[in-house]
Amino acid sequence: MLTTLSVRTYHIPTGHLLLEHNYPRGKSARVAVDINAVLDSVTSEELRVGSWVHVLGYVRRYINESNAPFAAKIAGPVYVDAVVVFSAGAIVLGDYERILRDAQEVDRRVARPA
């Protein structure tokens, strides 16, 4: 899985990032990311709240949800086990959201033929 989202918080004790993007408004996309395997290569800039990052990793389900880290309670029962985390650089948010909207429209048309 490859995702690009903004850092909402970094929980140091568990090594989990919580990433989100509030698009469309009121329907925030959130995901927890376990970065323990890549801590050596992640920079403080990439951990800063508000930073946009690309994450490549494996989607996993928490084995025991009652013992899942704080992020699971916010983001849900699955998380990304990061293999690579790197800066997305400067994001032009309007362009990014337009591209997302266009992709959603294509998905809608493919899922519901005329």
Structure description:
The chain is α+β, with helices and mostly antiparallel strands and about 110 residues long. It has one domain (about 5-90): OB fold (Dihydrolipoamide Acetyltransferase, E2P) (Beta Barrel). It is built from three helices and five strands; from the N terminus they run E-E-E-H-E-H-E-H. It has a five-stranded mixed β-barrel. A hairpin with a 7-residue loop joins strand 2 and strand 3 (about 30-35). The longest helix has 19 residues, at about 95-110. The model has no long low-confidence stretch (mean pLDDT about 85).
Topology of this structure?
Elements: E1 2-11, E2 16-21, E3 29-34, H1 44-47, E4 52-61, H2 70-75, E5 78-87, H3 93-111
**Arithmetic mean of pLDDT:** 83
Radius of gyration over C-alpha positions, nearest whole angstrom: 15 Å
Give the helices and strands as they follow along the chain: EEEHEHEH
- State the CATH superfamily name: Nucleic acid-binding proteins
Distance between the termini: 30 Å
How would a textbook summarize the main sheet? 5 strands, mixed, barrel
Structural class: alpha+beta
